[in-house]
Design a protein that fits this description.
This protein has four domains: 51 residues, no CATH class; 182 residues, no CATH class; 196 residues, no CATH class; 211 residues, Rossmann fold. Helices cover 61% and strands 8% of the residues. It has 25 helices and ten strands. A six-stranded parallel β-sheet has the order 5-10-9-6-8-7, with helices on both faces. It has a four-stranded antiparallel β-sheet with strand order 2-3-1-4, covered by helices on one side. Helix 2 runs antiparallel to helix 17 and helix 13 runs parallel beside helix 16. The longest helix has 79 residues. 25% of the residues are buried.
Length: 721
């Protein structure tokens, strides 16, 4: 309960500080918080897909990597490079769509006007009100690392909405152990707040995609280029072989050479057979010429016969050429060949008719009929002509084959070389295709095994503000001020070595406090000073009366450590009160009734050693001995031991020094069995009232707080009817 009383009285003493200090600070907060801007909060969520991702090879998820990936995402979003891109895009958006006197979904009018005031004319000239992308491109091109550059400085200086300091307040965190990234941002403009979050999400996705796929995309781009070049090289080699084949009239060199060899062997066989037939036909015709003698010459000289034989030879040669170089199917459908065969048969028939007309030559020189021999001779001539024609055709064909051999031999070498070049180009093309396929497979594996950011909760336009939290600020100011004042004065209470009140005085001096005296009161109670002093003096005297002995003179010693602590002032009131009670008081003063430099005073064992009552004086009831300041003169301790009470007068506003303890300790030790009390002079009204009770003027409010200070929570007036 002592602690409770201490707390209550402590709060009572500082009541005015609590009241006016709290009112003052709270009033300031109330005034200045009316200018607080409204705030708007926008939230958004991104699905990362890290913990649920899979790879093509089926490898397990590394949760250490998962945590690192989320940290990377957050650091990328909060990196200076990302925030700078957000700043310039946000600036371009505000300059393009802002309206000076009308709020819109992009920026409020007041904030747009502030932006116009900051932006120089050269920057405003870069704004395209119809195309935000063009505005962004212009601002990006305009930006330079210079303090005079508006776009650069607005990001690096503490400017609302567009600066790094403002954008760094964006809160990005992982929602527990989930795959969700939560983004929260608060600012004074709803449109800017929404656009900031939206642009940040866009830039985060772009930046992360670049970091995630850049190396693989570079590899894919490399192989795509190599595939393109390899395809061009392959096509070039193939076109070169094709053009060479066209130039040299080669369709399929191996098959053609194979067919050429087969034809050669066939021609050679037919040529051999044709030579035998021709030789046989010539031998038969020579034999018949010899047998027919001059008649054969006569017949041979026949113009019609010669013409027909030439026609047979020519037609037979043409037919042979066509039969050699065409297929059987083509021979059956070839009208020219059919006509020439008909012409050949007609020519042979003509020769037969010519032989029929040669009647004068029907007998040989021996008189033997030669009709059959002429026919045989004519047949031999026809066969010779046919064989000769066939032989000529086959010889010409052999020459052509030999010519083709000479032509085809170097072609084979070139074709082989070009084919090897094609094979090499094709192998390179296949290698590059495989590299491209592997790179695409790696890209797909990265897509499946790493995060793929998706917006699951897009940033919405905030329709309501968060409030200015004005009441909260006022409440904080109110409570904070009270806590500060209490803490401040409590520290003073614990650390301050000013006597001030009974509790602190007893703790510092080690002496019990008998009472307190107002002394000089504040201006408010100046008119009640004497009345209050009399009440305080009366209380003090009543406390001292218990040390009186009936029929004996009571000696009370009045001491002070320093001069001018109020002994004389208090004595006046003491004497006035005791006289009102009919007691005779005798005051013994130093330097008036005794000398402090006197040997008798210094060596005194009792009061009578340095002061004697006159014989004519009435024996007093009370003797008040006023000693000099302890620091200025010696005090006869034996005299103090024989006194009925020793009263140390101390100014309640004085500092209790260590030297005071050193001065007082010998006296306290000597007066262990003698009452040694502390009396506070010039104390606060509250301190005096803690002894005397309420002092005049007695006001209801003051009485109420006084009762609370004494923990009189349910107390009522003591007077009854």
């Amino acid at each position: 309960m002592d602690i409770m009383r201490f707390i209550s009285q402590f709060l009572y003493r500082i009541r005015y500080w609590l009241l006016w200090g709290t009112i003052f600070v709270t009033s300031l907060v109330i005034y200045f918080t009316q200018f607080l801007p409204y705030s708007y909060t926008v939230k958004s969520s991104l699905y990362a897909g890290i913990t649920t991702s899979t790879s093509l090879d089926g490898s397990a998820i590394n949760f250490g990597v998962v945590t690192s990936t989320f940290d990377n995402l957050i650091n990328i979003a909060k990196s200076r490079g990302t925030l700078e891109k957000v700043s310039i895009r946000l600036l371009a958006n505000s300059l393009t769509y802002g309206e000076e006197w009308k709020d819109n979904q992009y920026i409020q009018a007041k904030h747009y006007r502030q932006l116009l005031q900051m932006a120089p004319k050269e920057v405003l000239a870069l704004v395209d009100r119809k195309d935000v992308e063009k505005t962004l491109a212009n601002l990006t091109a305009y930006r330079k690392e210079s303090s005079n550059n508006f776009v650069y400085s607005i990001f690096n200086r503490p400017v609302a909405f567009y600066s790094a300091a403002a954008l760094e307040s964006i809160n990005i965190k992982r929602a527990g152990n989930s795959d969700i990234l939560e983004i929260t941002y608060t600012s004074a403009d709803p449109g800017i707040t929404q656009k900031t979050v939206s642009i940040l999400i866009d830039e985060l996705i772009k930046a992360y995609e670049i970091l995630r796929f850049k190396s693989t995309n570079d590899v894919i781009a490399y192989f795509q280029e190599q595939v393109r070049l390899a395809k061009i090289a392959l096509n070039k080699e193939e076109d070169d072989l094709m053009n060479y084949n066209v130039q040299e009239r080669v369709i399929n060199y191996p098959e053609e050479t194979k067919a050429l060899a087969f034809t050669r062997y066939e021609v050679e066989d037919r040529l051999e057979e044709a030579e035998r037939i021709y030789q046989g036909a010539v031998a038969l015709r020579d034999m018949l010429d010899e047998r027919m003698d001059v008649r054969a010459q006569i017949i041979r000289s026949n113009t019609n016969l010669l013409q027909e034989l030439n026609k047979v030879s020519t037609l037979n040669q043409s037919i042979m050429e066509q039969e050699i170089f065409t297929t059987d199917k083509h021979q059956q459908t070839d009208s020219k060949l059919r006509k020439e065969k008909e012409a050949l048969k007609k020519a042979e028939d003509n020769i037969s008719h010519i032989s029929d007309n040669l009647n004068e030559y029907n007998f040989t020189k021996e008189g033997v009929g030669i009709e059959s021999m002429v026919n045989e001779w004519l047949t031999a001539c026809v066969n010779e002509a046919k064989a000769k024609a066939e032989l000529q055709v086959l010889l010409k064909r052999q020459e052509d084959i030999f010519s083709q051999y000479s032509h085809m031999s170097p072609i084979g070498t070139q074709v082989n070389r070009k084919q090897r070049a094609i094979d090499i180009a094709e192998d390179n093309y296949r290698t590059q295709l495989k590299g491209l396929a592997d790179a695409n497979l790696r890209l797909k594996n990265i897509e499946m095994s790493t995060s793929n950011l998706q917006t699951v909760a897009p940033p919405d336009y905030p329709l309501t503000d968060n409030g200015r939290k004005r009441l909260l600020y006022i409440l904080i100011a109110f409570v904070g001020t009270i806590v500060f004042i209490i803490t401040y004065f409590l520290l003073i209470e614990l650390l301050d070595r000013t006597l001030r009140d009974p509790y602190r005085s007893k703790r510092l001096t080690g002496l019990p406090v008998i009472a307190a005296f107002n002394g000089i009161s504040n201006l408010k109670y100046r008119g009640f000073l004497k009345a209050c002093n009399r009440i305080a003096a009366a209380y003090s005297c009543r406390q001292l009366n218990k040390y009186m002995k009936p029929g004996q003179t009571t000696i009370i010693s009045l001491l002070s450590i320093n001069p001018r602590e109020g002994k004389s002032f208090l004595i006046k009131y003491f004497m006035e009160y005791w006289k009102s009670e009919g007691l005779h008081v005798r005051l013994v003063r130093h330097d008036l009734d005794f000398e402090t430099e006197d040997k008798r005073y210094v060596q005194a064992e009792q009061l009578s050693d340095f002061w004697q009552l006159n014989e004519v004086e009435q024996i007093p009831d009370i003797i008040l001995v006023e000693y000099p300041a302890i620091k200025d003169a010696s005090i006869p301790l034996p005299v103090l031991q024989k006194a009925d009470a020793n009263l140390l007068i101390a100014n309640a506003c004085r500092l209790w020094r260590n030297s005071d303890d050193a001065t007082l300790d010998p006296i306290k030790e000597a007066l262990q069995t003698t009452p040694f009390l502390l009396y506070l002079n010039n104390a606060d009204r509250d301190v005096v009232e803690s002894f005397t009770g309420e002092l005049p003027p007695k006001m209801p409010i003051h009485s109420f707080f006084s009762r609370l200070a004494q923990l009189g929570l349910t107390s009522q007036k003591a007077a009854v009817k």
